[in-house]
């Protein structure tokens, strides 16, 4: 590459994130060129609807009708996939990687669904896939895990990975307001999507957890094999009960690995987090990730988890790494000079692969996933009910730690909040199944998990 | 480099950090080889006293008498300088860089004193200088600033950079105990050095602040041109007063840049931090750094700031980056293919240089460094004293925000705690100078700074 040639970048997608990348590449043009040793040029942009009004005007001469055109254009070595979705984005990503390009992506849903294929394609064709923006917005957590903490194995990673849920839970807690009210407000203010289900159901956090679990343990865990529970059924009363017990409620993603059994578990669910845990005080649209490494101990990362600017910051850091890679002349067929690693294995650096030999790692069965639980039931307010419930729990070896009974709106009913000692997921599931079939129990019980991390 | 050759590493120094690096490279040997695509081998070790008893036994055949031998050995491309000091360490570092090697360093004192020369030497001879372990132990803050947040300019960086001071302050606060008592305890437990002055005087944090300021702003600021104040004069009473006002006390390093005037300021001093600031609750030997970027907003990093294992984690991450660089065949004369940057400028990536064109940046004069202040004076308990003090402050345009008067041990004296509205350093210095000369003021007044960051 000659020293005065700028480096061409293609943007597939020019929505929230794409326009943010454009804006900041423009604003910091000279400084970035100095830092990277080469000027950057956005050479082509693809959108669905060229007529759409945008905050940043789309320069007509850059417009390409088809993002696949950008993916395959020989003069565009860096392709940013900022469309979202798992169909066209999938085809664009694979096409660019097959052309030996560097793909920069913010698309956690795509990575979660097709990660194994994407990285295999990159490896095969000498392409590279960078994805800092896919998890935790502007927090450089991907780089921290794969480079900064490369000396470590990771027994525990947990945190807040979805800003929408954290915003809703924070508002519910602060204003003692019901979920539905806060949700519709959040939609009106643009903090939640029109279709909120991906966020509030925990699926977006699950996609991100899949990316982190793969980085840390070399294993692709589809959400269907995680425990994934959303925030829809959390009520203001749960916040009050939690506060009484000394906890806050957060939607957490939790990735643990037991290095003795070599079992990994990935969970996303609302959790009672003790007030002394720093993450319990991370509010609003912020994300936070606690990473425990066997060498470094626990490190904690906090920052905005989404939004145009924070996400653009992450995309641009990947572009910078892509430029460094291009300038080192190592883009195409990076791995041709070294022995290829087995597909499940990983190599560090930014070669677009994971970071840990994962051959022997398996998913932990429900029996070996355990913790303490918070259980809220609406029950008939009559003698013997608590005894009955307690005996069912005892049959499943679930031992009760505390009981809180409060009146319900219906005078014939009472709200019963139980916390348990350590129990396993299988036992809790069986218990829950049996409890929910009791005539004295009204509606489905709510199960939350109590998370006291050793950090 | 052939694919099955291991990569030789030399350790100059085999003390706390050196032995940690050895231990973890040993323990994770296979996994690291898989991650890095090449096995690592510690090929040589230099110490001062080969007979010394160590937790990790020094393999005799690896011993070299002189660290300079390792620095110049042609078969050792990666040299870890883990001796400390700024004399021999300086010579070893320069010799290795002149040989085009990659030097990995944990030595913030050296970088602070000789950084400009070190990076110029690296540039000139195609060597590289990596220094993740020099600031904030295992927290990958160097990588975050120079790579993960490369899209950003940094109006504000602040945090706790010295674990010893944070341990002492935390203990003083929690146990209502005087400085001297906690210090001697900390020495006995190995949390403070026999000669504590570098830590408690703020100098170690100043060295680290210099490294961060250079990374963020491309400017070498020697501690003599910073505001540096230590924790020695903070008393249990100050913690009580601070608590009354809603603050905790932390030794902070604060690096600010005003992009309008292009002025940078670097300060290290005990600060009153409001309880709602997450960093106010970072206790014990932990470090924490808040980084505000113009694109990403504020991100926060917390982790162990020192210690054998956390520091080794950082050294090993630099070794991993060094290996990636070597494997890309780009070690020697990396910059020969691109136009050289002016010495004050910087290029990103791991090319051993800073990250920002800094040509126009200057240090802010005291008049433009400002904030709120906490002032504690021991004064004669007699009429007119407060009026006198207030009038002196008013003459310097320092406006009082609150006054707290408490009895002193000496019945003729009173302790006077004043907080100010926004004032500048020059005005405060002049005020302090004048106040300390008053007959009614006993001993030197204590000045602390109140830090309410907009994050
Ligand atoms: N927004 C965030 O804060 C955030 C944070 C982290 C990650 N992400 C991820 O970043 C990606 C983009 O998110 P976003 O919020 O920027 O989405 P967005 O605002 O909806 O923008 C999507 C862009 O892709 C274009 N596009 C969609 N389908 C297309 C097609 N068939 N052909 C050509 N162009 C097409 C759209 O074109 P039109 O403009 O013509 O409709 C639009 O410009 C997603 O993967 C998302 O998960 C977003
Ligand atoms: N300790 C930490 O937690 C920490 C954290 C961050 C950064 N650092 C930095 O890391 C560096 C090393 O710190 P450390 O705590 O590991 O120091 P240390 O325990 O005192 O070890 C220093 C090592 O260097 C060797 N050495 C000293 N002078 C020498 C000479 N003239 N020739 C050959 N070898 C010599 C010593 O040899 P002998 O063993 O024979 O005395 C010893 O092995 C320092 O720059 C420090 O600031 C330390």
From TrEMBL, chains A, B:
Active site: 208 (proton donor)
Pathway(s) the chain acts in: Amino-acid biosynthesis; L-threonine biosynthesis; L-threonine from L-aspartate: step 3/5; Amino-acid biosynthesis; L-methionine biosynthesis via de novo pathway; L-homoserine from L-aspartate: step 3/3
Binding site for L-homoserine: 193
Pfam families: ACT, Homoserine_dh, NAD_binding_3
A biological process from GO: threonine biosynthetic process
ACT domain mapped to chain residues: 374-449
EC number: 1.1.1.3
Binding locations of NADPH: 108
Keyword Repressor: no
UniProt keywords, alphabetically: Amino-acid biosynthesis, Methionine biosynthesis, NADP, Oxidoreductase, Threonine biosynthesis
Entry-linked InterPro entries: ACT-like_dom_sf, ACT_dom, Asp/hSer_DH_NAD-bd, HDH, HDH_cat, NAD(P)-bd_dom_sf
Gene Ontology molecular function terms on file: homoserine dehydrogenase activity; NADP binding
Domain of life (superkingdom): Bacteria
Principal EC category: oxidoreductase
Family the UniProt entry places it in: Belongs to the homoserine dehydrogenase family.
Annotated protein name in UniProt: Homoserine dehydrogenase
